[in-house]
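Um, can you check?
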Amino acid sequence: MGTIVCQQCQVTIEHYENEKVAILYGTCPKCKSK
């Protein structure tokens, strides 16, 4: 199980299927619109 976390506000954006546990950083819609 992997997790996508917003690198600006640290909110969990979504979970995705993965063989390993991993954290990916992205930007959530709130931070993108700023």
